[in-house]
Design a protein that fits this description.
This protein is an all-alpha fold. The chain has helices at residues 2-18, 32-55, 59-64, 68-95, 97-120, 128-161, 185-201, 203-211, 214-221, 226-230, 234-256, 268-295, 299-321, 330-355. It has one domain (2-355).
Length: 356
């Protein structure tokens, strides 16, 4: 029952995480840095600390009793994650929601899986479980490579048929592709590079969660709830992630004089959009943390790749619904579908590995 509940939680977490950036398509009067800074305040600061003070009121004492090595794991992992999230936000803006998630999350899946398995459970690598999980991750990486190629085909086709860089629907109207600002070789290259950087640095998220698992026992000994113990690491980790993220976004505010955007007409609802984004993103972490706890010590190995693959599938569904693959040519469409098929196979294999 615990495993079934865990996988339901992971499925839900993957869906809401894959959809968290959707409001960015509806904030045309704010700059890039406005929405992402407001989102980070809720996702990295307010919601994590609010949740943990409810679920584990003795959080200050718990952190005081945490070994110094684990605190440094949170600090370093958090800073790397924060830097990666800056790159991720730019990648979504440059190459689109679906493809940005594919590249970033695909890399994060592979590395986030491999390190906990190799460092903490090397004895499991040669078992049927280990081999099935490795196959699942390989399928995810193949899907990642194919999807990246599909994105290159998409932007080449658009640049060829629309050299003025205005994307149109079949009826002649302007395509709804706000996140993809400029097709073209250099634009795509830098967008992919940023997504890769985000994927590499975001590995610190799951690795930090895995390496600080002892904090859960400390939290329980201080009277924290099971859910509070499962998520005791996130507030500290995200606080340090917020620092480089906020510094960069504030520098963009100053450079672009973006503070005045907050008082623009008809933008009050944008603050609500930022809160919704924060709830979607951090809420997915709460669900993932609980699911990983239900599975047991091997939870970060099983749950992480499944969580990541579901995020990819959800974000790509949203990308299709918002015409991110409109006017891209049939070859690009077939290629991205092939990549997503590999990701679906990856989810299936990883689910089977959990049963083993």
């Amino acid at each position: 029952m615990n495993v079934s509940t865990a996988f339901l939680l992971i499925i839900f977490a993957g869906i809401i995480n894959g959809a968290f950036a959707l409001p960015t398509k509806h904030v045309s009067k704010w700059n890039f840095e406005n929405i992402w800074l407001q989102y980070s305040i809720w996702a990295f600061l307010i919601l994590p600390w609010l949740a943990i003070f409810i679920l584990a009121p003795n959080v200050v004492q718990i952190y005081s009793d945490t070994p110094t090595q684990m605190i440094w794991t949170m600090v370093i992992g958090g800073f790397l994650f924060g830097a990666g999230q800056v790159a991720f936000a730019f990648a979504l803006n440059m190459i689109g929601l679906g493809l940005g998630f594919v590249i970033c999350i695909g890399l994060s899946t592979a590395i986030g899986f491999s390190l906990p398995l190799i460092l903490q459970h090397p004895e499991a690598i040669a078992t049927p479980f280990g081999m099935a999980t490795i196959i699942g991750v390989v399928l995810a990486l193949v899907g990642l490579i194919i999807a990246t190629y599909a994105g290159e085909l998409r932007d080449k086709h658009r640049h060829k048929i629309l050299p003025d860089k205005v994307l149109l629907n079949e009826d002649g109207s302007k395509a709804d592709v706000e996140l993809i600002n400029t097709p073209g070789k250099n634009h795509y290259f830098y967008g992919v590079l940023l997504a890769i950087m985000a994927g590499l640095t975001s590995t610190g998220q799951n690795l930090s969660f895995s390496l600080t698992s002892q904090m859960q026992e400390i939290a329980l000994s201080h009277g924290a709830s099971q859910l509070g113990a499962a998520n005791i690491m996130w507030p500290g980790f995200l606080f340090f992630g917020f620092i480089p993220y906020a510094i960069y976004m504030l520098s963009l505010h100053k450079k672009n004089n973006s503070f005045k955007k907050y008082s623009a007409k008809n933008t009050k609802k944008y603050f609500l959009f930022a809160i919704v984004m924060g709830i979607g993103w951090f809420g997915s972490l709460l669900c993932y943390g609980k699911a990983s706890q239900l599975i047991g010590s091997i939870g970060p190995v099983i749950g992480w790749p499944l969580f990541m693959a579901l995020i990819i599938l959800t974000s790509n569904f949203i990308g299709w619904k918002h015409n991110e693959w409109e006017n891209c040519g049939q070859k690009a469409k077939y290629t991205i579908f092939t990549g997503l098929i590999f990701l679906v196979l990856s989810v299936t294999v990883l689910g089977y590995s959990a049963m083993l």
